[in-house]
Structures are given as structure tokens and as C-alpha cells.
Amino acid sequence: MSAEVVVSDLAFRYISRTDWALDGVRLTAHEGEFLGITGPSGAGKTTLCLSLNGLVPNVIEGTMRGSVAVGGLDTRKTDVSRMSSVIGVVFQDPRSQLTGSAMTVEEEVAFGLQNLGVPRHVMIDRIREALDAVGLAGFEARSPFELSGGEQQRLSLATVLAMHPRVIVLDEPTEMLDPEGQVEVMRAVRRIHEKHNMTTILVSNQAEVIVEHANRIIILHRGRIISENTRQEYSKKAKFLETLGVRPTQISQLASMLEEQGLWRGDYPINETDAVEMIRKFILG
Amino acid sequence: MSDVKPSISIERLTHRYPNGHEALRAIDLEILHEKIVALIGKNGAGKTTLAKHINGLLKPTLGSVKVMGVDTSTKTASEMAKDVGYVFQNPEDQLFEASAHDEVAFGPRNLGMDREETESEVNHALSMVGLLPMISEHPYNLTYGQRKMLCIAAVLAMRPKILILDEPNAGQDYSGLQLLGTLLRELDREHKTILLISHDMDFVGEFSDETVLMHDGEIVAHGSTRSVLSDLSKLKSTAVRPPQVTRVAIQLSDDRVRHDIMTVREMVETLTHNVSGTARMR
Predict the structure, then answer these.
(1) pLDDT at residue B276 in the model
(2) Contact (CB<8Å) A179/B199
(3) What is the predicted ipTM?
């Protein structure tokens, strides 16, 4: 597996601040991997996302040390627009990502492609393909502002996909959505990840979402990566997560409390089916 | 003894927006004093429209809304502000002063409280939301979660009897959520009636007494949070999922586990009780 994203000793300080938002991050994401990142508020999660596509430090100024390379391109030596054809980022607030000038869903997706100078016939194919992938086929003529939060978020995902990136970064993509929106966005993310073997980096504090989707989960704290885990290991860290201010899944909290009472042994459950089976075996059986 | 008169009494409320969209259809709802009531359902179900009738920002197209016994159609929104505090979903819609202190002092000053009284309200409200150390900070130096807490403090300082919180937990990390939970319990002790709009079912399950489930401008369920969040048949059409621990409990309900467990702690108690019960039987 080749490394798609290589972050080496990355540190960043915003121009108006005295403290370092990122303080020595070392991280590799491999081709086709689904990587999860969690951490409390202020840990540096969004700053990390912004450095992956080069917005930090090329647009958002500050002091940067170390380096970031995506698909072999060094973010400091590459235009932000060129980077957008390698890596796409979807942020938390669906409305703030709309161009505001596009009158239709189709124009919204076309916007980034036009900036790259993609020929018209290629553009039409890319738009159709991207809207299909996020389940918005048939929405071409609708106004982006009329869409629900979940639909707007899938539209953001489509604008990113249309650029044919090698890596997709999702910065708390479902945190502001209702339950239905959360399900439809993650379903689209999953489908794209599987169909295109897309390298996917998901930042989230929604414990169930991250444990369900990410194969490797990194904990960011005060600008540093303090722990790297498989799903199994992450679930087992329920107590540790609580002390950091990160919400664990309820079933891992349950296992941890039962373990304290001598009623649980070994691994913690990672999904409901596991939890039901283990409770039957350890306690009710 | 707590008062059990209705705090909010809504009869046959219909609301039609100027574009003709009927956001609420013949809603009946009674909310008693000193309860924490969650309002859940997907976006567009009518939660915020309903809440805006309670503070008088919107007036009924048909039907009536009474707050503390008074019909809201006879009062302006600013008259209502004394009784009903509304904390908006997006802090940027609410914050406009240059420091946390001034932000919170704005309401009490406007209500005509004197300097001493205002300062005491500011200190009390900021300490309740854990922001007293940030009293002189500019709101934009606070994290998103802290700005949301600041909005709550600004509303609390006006001493409303009813507090509406529109998605206070969105954007909060775990520490923020715990702080918010503690705050709700504290407000409960201060005899406030609280209406909590939320998509976070773990939080609703842990901190609310009652839940109102809305769908398509109507109330499809209203009862104890325990009864609403464990009723899969009612939740199904609204895409709301019960808390994870409740979903596990429902699957274990054939195995001597009650199906309406709402928190991890309750599940631990049930299971440990179950073990000791079994041991006794043996």
C-alpha cells in the first residue's frame, strides 16, 4: 500500500496566536484507507484538515514547520487550486461551503471544474457521475439553498468528488445534521470509499460513526497525536477518552463500568450485535 | 411541593408561513411547570416553528398559545422575553458585544436592572455555564461550544421562567456536553421549565423528563422520554434512533432486561441486579 498522505513533524501557529495549534504531527494515510481522527475542541482537528489541502499555510497565514505531502505533492509548493484535484475537504457547516453564486446544483458542481479549465464535455460527465455518487441525480436544476442540510452536505461532497481527488477529508460532516441527514451523508461516504477505493479521512466526535467506519482511529490532543488505534483498541479506551473530553460509545462505556465490577473480561464491543452477544455470554448466560 | 399548573398550553395551533407552507397542523400540547421537555424529530418537522410560538416570535395562524396563563397573541415578543428565554441554534445570530461580560449584561440592563443587580446576574450566569474565567474575553476568542454557552448565559441573566434551547449540544465536545447536562440539572433545581430541541438522543435520554416527537408539522408522540425513545414503531418514520444502550436493551428484552433503559448507568444497574438475582435464585 502506498502512502497517499504524509505529514512530517507538522507544527502551525495562527498569525494572531501565541500558542501552537499543531505541535509536531506525524501521520501517514495509505491508499484506500479509512482513517478516523477524534479529539476534544481545540485539539487542532480543523487546522490539520486545512493543512492537508494547503489552505494552511497558503491562504490562512501563520508560522508553519514540517511538511505535508498528498499524492506526492508538497502543499507549500503547490497551488491551492491544483491541490483541489488531489484532495478534497468537506467541512461541518453545509451552508458555508456553497459558492453562494451558483443558482443550481449543477452550477455548484461545475464551479470548481471551470476553475481548473476542464473542457465542457468532460465537465458534463463529471457532474453526472458526482451527483450520482452522492444520490443527488435528478437535483441538477434545484437551487442549492432549497436543499436540506443533508442534501447540501452531499452536494459539497459531490463538488469535491467531481475534481477526481485521490483523498477525501471530512471535517465533522454530520455534526450539524438531523438523524436522517447523518445517515444519508455517511451512506454516500461509505459508497464512494468502497466503489473507488477512495482514501478517506473522517474527523468526528460522533463515537458511533467513527467506530463504525474507520479502520484506524487517531486521537489528537493539544496539537499532537497521542494515540493510534484499531477499532478494537479504540473501544477499549472508553475511560481514557472520557478523561480527554472525547465521547466514547455507550456500549464501550457500559463494558468499562461492568469490568470495574468484575462482570466483563477481554475486548469491548464495537457494535450492538457484539454487545448483545457479549452481555448474553458474560452476564445473562 | 412543585407546582403542576401548565406552564405552556397550546390548543389547535396551526401555522402557515406567507409562502403557504403549513409548518404546524392543529397542535395540542401541554407542558407543566419545572419539566425538562425534549423536542425531537427531523429538520422541517416544525420544532423551531413551534418553539418560536412559545416566545411570541411567531403568532398562530389558527388556535392559541398560552404561556403562564397569558395568550401570546396579546403580547409583543419583547414583553414575552421576561418570561421566555430563547437560545438560538447558531451563536453568531445572537452575539454582538465586544466581551463576554457585556454580552451577558445587555439583557439585564435592557430590563432596567441597576448596576449592582446586573453585575450579580452576569457573575451568576457566567459561573453557571463555566465561563466566569473568560469574563473579559471577546466572544470570538471563545470556541464554538463556549460561544453557545455564552448565549445561554446571556439569556439566563434575564431570569426567564421558561428557557428554550435550540440544539445546544450541536458542536459541543464531551466536556461541553457534560457541562451542559450539569447546567440543565442546576436549572431544574432553580424551578425553570426547559424546552430542549435536540438531535442527540443519548443526551435527550439522559437529561429530559418528557419527549415530544414531531413529524411533518404534527406531534406523533408525547410522553415520558423513556416511553417515547423506546417505541421503535413510532420512531421509525422519523429516522430518529434511540440511544445505543436502549437499542441494545430492546434486543435483550427477551432476556429479563427491560426494553426502556435510557442510560449506560441504568443498564449497569439492571445487569448487576440481574446477576445478583440469579445468584439468589441458585
Answers:
(1) 66
(2) yes
(3) 0.90
